[in-house]
Write a structure and sequence with these properties.
This protein is α/β, with parallel strands linked by helices. The protein has helices at about 5-15, 30-35, 40-45, 75-85, 105-110, 155-175, 185-200, 205, 235-245, 275-280, 285-300, 310-320, 320-325, 330-345, 350-360, 365-375, 385-395, 405-415, 420-430, 445-455, 470-480, 485-490, 525-535, 555-565; strands at about 20-25, 50-55, 60-70, 90-95, 120-125, 130, 135, 180, 215-220, 250, 265, 515-520, 545-550. The protein is about 50% helix and about 15% strand. Helix 6 packs across helix 7 (about 185-200), helix 11 crosses helix 14 and helix 17 (about 385-395) runs parallel beside helix 19. The two termini are about 35 Å apart.
């Protein structure tokens, strides 16, 4: 279930089914869908002379060229296509849509093709963003598709787009899954029902459930609001948390003294072997990995620069432009790691992360409260990091008698934190507080779980910055090992009440099984690592897990989405 290969298959069909020199027209949404899985060099090798946006009306007429269009079946793209066909700039048109076409759309194309230039119309189901082989998202952004309508209910536009994107994933992978959902989530259940209705309505496309057994498990972010709030210390997660990744692109234009060619860089596993090998390394191991490569080059070039730090590596790269040419991707990563190191130091993230992890993993109210008061009073800590830690405190100690949430909110205000930022604390409690969550993520809601939580810290020495395990990891481990029991059957019921309880595996060994996990409210890079490691662990048992979400969050986007779109 490699989602990158699924989109690459469609991309190659689009650009190779039409022979000779051609123009590729994309719309606002299909442009990043293609750029995530392909390169300009690859497109040129397949005789794509020019890539442009269909909305651009200033293109030159080149009637000697063929035109391949790949667009979403939206009103805006259909209007742009209608305008294009009325005044065609190219000789022949081959039109591909990223999702299911309505009959009325086909009729509209025929009516506007007065010049009879359309040679082909097809559906290629690449209507989602494939980030890594095991991670995809739908691309919902608050500005274009706000997730919520009122409280825990779907905004109709966001629901429609999510059904389209998730159905495209299933069609691209040729799956018709058994659907399960978190029982306490009306949004997860609604999505499951809409998707099930579509599969029945388009049964000729989806076929039957025969073949490789597939489970689609729809989760709700509200049941684990903690994971997106934490600072994670693996490479891919740090890049998204501290700098931000937008459809594989990282904007470095704000970095001091950045070289012009490095102001924007791309990340893609199949185009960057260093990233593929290093994306799940923790920050300490990452520095060692890139230093080994630089040392190797030094020995080959007989250079004698002393390299003992990330700053030394950056100076070495600046001094040897030929290294940048030969090592390409690695010099890019030296720049990225250098910026991460600068931000970790500037924002005092080691101290922040240590408190975050304590709040997420350990029950020690007095100690946490003292540390949190000191953190809020520290002028060197960024306001958003102070708020994040108070949110974690509020979530953990919400039901603790004598909690100091109100005191901490006042302390934030008196230390200059904006009132709108402070208000996210109450929003988060209404979104993912104890009354809304289905699971005991803090293991502090009864005497048995508290005991388990206390002894968890005695099992050997842990890195204080990486203690937290996403709730998703525990769930998936239980599912693939067959440890479901009544707990998981109650928490994740089948959408079809007549369906037999799912058998994902057994204690004696797993069998072929595909699991697609989709999170309403967004996924995180930390959860991506969980899935990637699980796939590697159980590869011999043919257990394959794919993770998707309405978006990919870091702490900033998570809190921003809730503060701007969640109104209970």
């Amino acid at each position: 279930m490699d989602i990158i290969k699924a989109v690459q298959y469609y991309t190659n069909r689009i650009i190779t089914d039409t022979s000779s020199m051609k123009v590729l027209l994309l719309d606002r949404e299909t442009t990043p869908i293609i750029s995530l899985v392909s390169t300009q060099t690859h497109l040129l090798s397949k005789e794509v002379y020019l890539v442009d946006r269909i909305e651009n009306r200033q293109r030159d007429a080149m009637r000697h060229l063929k035109c391949v269009c790949f667009v979403r079946p939206t009103d805006a793209s259909l209007q742009a296509l209608r305008d294009e066909l009325r005044s065609p700039k190219y000789g022949d048109y081959y039109v591909y849509f990223s999702n299911i076409l309505k009959k009325s759309m086909v009729e509209m194309l025929a009516e506007n093709d007065e010049n009879e230039v359309v040679r082909e119309v097809q559906e290629f189901f690449a209507d989602f963003y494939a980030v890594t082989p095991c991670l995809f998202h739908i691309g919902l952004e608050p500005s274009t598709h706000p997730l919520f309508a009122e409280g825990h209910s779907w905004n109709p536009g966001a629901l429609g787009r999510t059904v389209q994107g998730l159905s495209a994933v299933l069609l691209a992978l040729k799956r018709r899954p058994n659907i399960r959902y978190e029982r306490n989530s009306a949004m997860a259940q609604r999505l499951g029902r809409e998707l099930d209705y579509l599969m029945d309505h388009e049964s000729s496309l989806f076929g039957s459930t025969s073949g490789s057994p597939t489970q689609l498990v729809i989760l709700d972010r509200k049941n684990d609001p903690v994971t997106p709030l934490l600072t994670h210390w693996t490479y891919h997660a740090m890049l998204h948390e501290l700098i931000g990744i937008n459809n594989g692109r990282i904007d470095l234009s704000h970095v001091p003294d950045i070289r012009p060619e490095s102001k924007e860089v791309m990340l893609a596993q199949d185009q960057d072997s260093f990233f593929k090998q290093s994306q799940f390394l923790n920050f300490g191991d990452l520095g060692v990995s890139v230093k080994e490569f630089v040392d190797s080059y030094q020995s080959q070039s007989q250079s004698h620069h002393k390299i003992e730090s990330i700053s030394d590596m950056k100076r070495f790269v600046e001094a040897y432009p030929e290294f940048r040419k030969l090592s390409g991707n690695v010099s890019k990563h030296v720049t990225l790691i250098g910026e991460l190191s600068r931000l970790v130091s500037q924002r005092h993230l080691l101290a922040v992360s240590e408190l975050e992890q304590s709040l997420a993993c350990n029950e020690q109210h007095g100690t946490d409260l003292r540390a949190l008061r000191a953190l809020i009073a520290n002028p060197k800590i960024q306001p958003e990091n102070k708020v994040r830690c108070v949110v974690l405190y509020a979530l953990r100690y919400e039901q603790t008698q004598g909690n100091a949430v109100n005191e901490l909110k006042q302390l934030l205000s008196s230390n200059g934190v904006d009132a709108d930022m402070v208000s996210i604390i109450d929003v988060m409690l209404r979104y993912g507080g104890a009354r809304e969550r289905q699971s005991d993520i803090f293991q502090n809601e009864n005497i048995f779980s508290r005991g388990k939580n206390i002894f968890k810290g005695l099992q050997g020495t842990e890195n204080v910055y990486t203690q937290h395990t996403p709730a998703l990891a525990i769930m998936l481990e239980d599912l693939v090992r067959g440890r479901q029991g009544l707990h998981w059957q109650e928490r994740l019921p089948n959408l079809d009440p007549n369906a037999r309880p799912p058998m994902l595996g057994n204690e004696n060994g797993m069998f072929n099984q595909d699991i697609i996990v989709f999170v309403v409210g967004g996924v995180t890079m930390e959860e991506e690592m969980t899935v990637a490691k699980l796939n590697a662990k159980f590869v011999s048992q043919n257990v394959r897990v794919l993770l998707g979400g309405t978006s990919i969050h870091n702490s900033r986007t998570f809190m921003s989405e809730l503060s701007t779109t969640f109104f209970p």
